[in-house]
Amino acid sequence: MKWITRERPKIDRIACPWLIARFIDPDAEIIYVPAPEVIARAAELQAVPFDVPDVEYTHYGDECTFDYFLRKHRLNDPALRQLALIVRAADTHRFGLVPQAAGLWAISAGLSHNHANDYEMLEIGKKVYDALYSWARFRQEEKHTWQHKQ
């Protein structure tokens, strides 16, 4: 299936394609286009638009598009729910919700600065979300305990 969204992805527009590829549609094709073209190109390409206003897969209330994907596709994995909280906090600039949110925003903004190609950025971003998911699923309780002695 084809999925389409705005170019120059940041939080939700990297997290959602990662979620689609890993848990919903492993053969998905993600398409980035200029924001004003999303709806017309979606119709032309028979693609599902996401993370733009006035489409099904978008923000609702305080939640972001990633939250909607989880709900729509009944993804109840506790690690995905934890990741959704991080994505929501970073994507809606509510860094006080979870400590990881500001770091995720910083990584996303840095990726955007360093990579002009959206698809290259997506591939690198998927590795970031793989790592966050692994942390949420397997290492969330692990603490960094090494201390430097003076």
Structural write-up:
The protein is mainly α and 150 residues long. The protein has 6 helices and 3 strands. The chain has a 3-stranded parallel β-sheet, covered by helices on one side. α3 packs antiparallel against α4. The radius of gyration is 16 Å and the shape is globular. The N and C termini lie far apart (57 Å).
Tell me the layout of helices and strands.
Blueprint (H helix, E strand, L loop, with lengths): L1 E5 L5 H13 L4 E5 L4 H8 L1 E3 L15 H8 L5 H14 L8 H15 L3 H22 L11
Parallel strand pairs: 1-2, 1-3
Helix pairs in contact: 1-6, 3-4, 4-5, 4-6
Number of domains: 1
Strand order of the largest sheet: 2-1-3
**Structural class computed from helices and strand pairing:** mainly alpha
**Per DSSP, what share of the residues sits in E-state strands of 2 or more residues?**
5-15%
Q: Give the helix proportion (percent range).
A: 40-55%
